[in-house]
Design brief:
The chain is α+β, with helices and mostly antiparallel strands and 165 residues long. It has a single domain, classed as Aminopeptidase (3-Layer(aba) Sandwich), CATH 3.40.630. Helix content is 31%, strand content 34%. The structure holds coenzyme A (COA). Coenzyme A binds next to strand 4, helix 3 and helix 4. One of its GO terms (molecular function) is acyltransferase activity, transferring groups other than amino-acyl groups.
């Protein structure tokens, strides 16, 4: 696979938004219950992510093509934690790019970014999304609760400890 570059998304223009929606729709193919209700949901959700966490919105690029992205929020009020922590709002790779190590690169960037700004990160993952749950457990995320079909996972962060695996 050609070189993968991880960059902060500089701006969410129309063309980029369309590509991110495509990645989101393809990435969750076969897992529709976890990937929203279609393109108009995806559009609203991805705009929400961008407005909430611009500084932590990272994309993986192969040449000029965006392969996937991760949205890391350093300023998330978690009602479960009762305080502000970090959060991963979205993490998805286009189907054709899954399983090639690109997710690891995005996650490492995300944890490096969050570890500089907060001491804990939470995320929610579908209960049947075993591949992703294993992926997160490998990074030291622990299952701490469940709400409906969603499993809540958290990980403690330490400054300078950005390998995390
Ligand atoms: C989860 C996801 C972002 C991981 O990115 P990735 O680039 O496929 O993952 P990598 O290739 O870097 O790492 C693969 C690891 O993740 C796990 N994995 C999770 N989903 C996988 C998939 N669809 N294909 C291959 N591996 C997957 C494997 O256990 C593998 O572990 P290993 O490195 O010890 O062999 C990506 O598979 C994806 O977009 N999945 C669909 C959307 C999703 O579930 N997002 C998370 C929601 S909370």
């Amino acid at each position: 696979m050609a070189e993968v570059k991880i960059e902060r998304l500089p701006e969410l223009d129309q063309e980029t938004l369309e590509r991110l929606i495509e990645i989101y729709m393809r990435g969750y193919e076969g897992m529709r219950e976890y990937g929203g209700e279609g393109e108009s949901y995806a559009k609203r959700y991805l705009r929400w992510c961008w407005n909430k966490a611009k500084d932590g919105f990272f994309i993986a690029k192969i040449g000029d093509e965006i392969a996937g992205f991760i949205v890391c929020d350093a300023d998330w009020y978690s009602k479960y934690e009762g305080r502000t922590v970090g959060a991963v709002h979205e993490f998805v790779l286009d189907k054709k790019f899954q399983g090639h190590g690109i997710g690891h690169k995005l996650m490492e960037k995300c944890l490096e970014y969050l570890a500089e700004r907060t001491d804990r990160v939470e995320l929610w993952v579908g209960e049947k999304n075993e591949g992703a749950i294993r992926f997160y457990e490998d990074y030291g995320f622990r299952r701490v609760g469940q709400s409906g079909i969603w499993v809540r996972m958290v990980k403690d962060l330490r400054k300078g400890d950005n390998k995390n695996r």
